[in-house]
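Lab meeting prep.
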Amino acid sequence: MQTNSSKNVNFLPTKRGYKIAYQHYRSKQSQNNKSGILFIHGHGSDMFGSKAKAIMDWAINRDIDFTRFELFGHGLTGGDIMTATIGQWIQDSCDIFDHVAEKSQIIVGSSLGGWIMLSLCKYRTEKIDSLVGIAAAPDFTRSLIWQTLDKSKQEEFRAQGYLRFSDPNCGPDVIYPYQLVEEAENHLVLEGPIEFYGRVILHHGLCDTEVPWQTSMKIAEQIQSDKVEIHLNKSANHRYSEEEQINALIQSLEKLTSTE
C-alpha cells in the first residue's frame, strides 16, 4: 500500500462482529528495524484527517512503517458510535497492534486517541517505543463531561441515557451516551502512575477550548518516564492542524526516529 487514498483500505475482522478499517505501509527494507508509527484518531474523527495524512506522507517518504485505522463507530469501520465504549476502542487498538503493526511502535494519539495511547501502555507496553500526544484527552468522560454537570443534570443524563453538548467551535452538537461515561470509569488512566518509561512528547494548544492544556501537564506528572517533553503552542486550538503545528509534530517524529 503506497498511497494516501481511501481506496487502499484493508479490513481486519474482530471477535466483536465487525471489521476495523485500516491502512498500513510496510517498509521496503525487510531488515529495517526502525519502529513503526501508529496513528490513533480522535472522537468523531477518522484516519483521513490532515494530521494523519501529513504524518503518513512523511513516513512513506522515509520508508518508515506506518499504520492508521478507524475505531468502531467511525469512518469506514462503521457501527453505531452511540453504543461504543472506551474499552471497545482499546480492544480495537490492541487488535491492530497484534495483527497489523508488527514492530515496536511510536504511537501518535490525537485527543481521544491520546487516551487510548496511554491505555496501551498498560496492555501493550512491550511493543511501544515512544508516545506523541496531540491535545491528548485521557479521562475526558469524567473530567470534561460528568464532573462539569450539577446533580440535576447528572440525573437527567442517567435517566435519559444521553446528553447533547454544544460544540465550542460552532460545529454540530455532540451527543454523548451515558453508557460511554459509565463504562469509561473502568479505564481511567490519570488516577495513578502510568507505567511507561520511554520517550514522550506532548503537544497542546493554549487556545484549546475542548481539552485544557493543563491535561498534558497532568499526563507528564503521572507518566513514570523521565524523558517527557511538553510543547505548548500559544495560537493552537484543539484541532492542532495548522501548517506550523503539523510541522511541529513532524519534527517530533524526526527526533524520535533519528535517535533509535
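Slide two material, second protein:
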Amino acid sequence: MIRLGGSALSAKIIQLVIPMEPNLELVAAETASTIAELMCFDEDGIDEIRMAIIEACLNAFEHSHSPERKVYITFHILPDRLILEVTDHGKGFNPSDVRPPSIDEAVRGGRKRGWGFKLMRSLMDEVMIETGSWGTTVRMTKMKRRGGGCYDR
C-alpha cells in the first residue's frame, strides 16, 4: 500500500536487489522497461523511465559508499502511474551541496559530470530525494498519458 495525495491506493509492488557491480544498472533498466511496457507506456515514456533508473542506480553505485554494496529498487505499479524507488544504505548526502551542472563549462571541455539529478527531473514527472545517515532513496514518478492504447487496463 502506498499513500498518495491523502488517500491510500493499492499498488502492485515488485522489488529488485542488485549488487553494485559494473553494468548491473542495466538489469534494473530492463526490469523497468518491461514493467512500463506491460503498463502500456508509450515508447518515449519507456525510454525516459529506463534512462532515469539507470542514472539513479549509477549515482548510488558511485556516490553512496554503501558498505553492503547493494541497491534496492521498488516498483509501485498503479493504474495511472509508475513509482520507482532506488535506495542505497550508504552515507547519505546534503542535496544542497550538489552543484548544478553548467552547460557552458561542459561545452568548454570542463566538468561534464553532475547531470544525473537534472536529467532524472527532466525525464520523470516527479523526483524526490530522502537522504540521511541511513542512506538515500530517490523516488521517481512517471504518470501515464491518456490515449496510449491500454491506458485503462
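Talking points for slide two:
The chain has a mean pLDDT of 86.
The domain at 10-143 is CATH 3.30.565.10 (Heat Shock Protein 90).
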